[in-house]
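Title: Comparing notes on inverse folding

I've been comparing how different people in this forum approach sequence design from structure. To keep things fair, I'm posting one structure and asking everyone to reply with a full sequence. Here's the target:
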């Protein structure tokens, strides 16, 4: 039997395990876009086939998930454009893009929330308060700590999150900046 591996964070994972772990979530994701489970399963199978053939390596699990979701999203959009020729009109194409972007944003926020939960409790509070629009002075006052402590903990937390997410970190935080 042919054994194929995927490298995530310099560690080898059997492709079969990756497929089993992520197939169902990708089908649900594709189904939200396509509104057809059979087509969603076909698309996801093609996505995993692309991954099998390209044999990429990823910095971490978050980078792999981002790649997987973006590839699935793009494959769904391509499928819809081919299936529905009227999607060539700008308005319909924008509707599909907007709906897909909402689903991707939802998953990105879930991943970001999971990463924030891994921070120290004080840092979690600071990041969440900052993301809700509070200024550093307001955070410092609310938590009864100095503004410099807020700045330091916020900078350290962003560095940890940036190291976890890589380049997509800025895109995740962009709506809050």
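Reply #1:
Here's my take.
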């Amino acid at each position: 039997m042919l054994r194929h591996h995927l490298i995530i964070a310099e560690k080898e994972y059997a492709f079969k395990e990756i497929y089993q772990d992520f197939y169902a979530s990708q089908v649900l994701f594709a189904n939200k876009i396509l509104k057809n489970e059979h087509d969603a399963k076909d698309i996801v199978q093609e996505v995993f086939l692309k991954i099998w053939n390209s044999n990429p390596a990823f910095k971490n699990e978050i980078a792999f998930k981002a790649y997987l979701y973006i590839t699935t999203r793009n494959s769904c959009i391509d499928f819809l454009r081919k299936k529905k020729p009227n999607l060539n009109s700008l308005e319909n194409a924008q509707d599909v893009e907007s709906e897909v972007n909402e689903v991707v944003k939802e998953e990105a926020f879930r991943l970001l929330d999971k990463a924030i939960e891994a921070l120290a409790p004080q840092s979690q509070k600071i990041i969440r308060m900052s993301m809700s629009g509070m200024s550093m002075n307001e955070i410092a006052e609310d938590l009864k700590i100095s503004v410099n402590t807020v700045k330091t903990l916020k900078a350290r937390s962003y560095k940890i999150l940036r190291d976890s997410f890589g380049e997509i970190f800025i895109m995740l935080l962009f709506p809050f900046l």
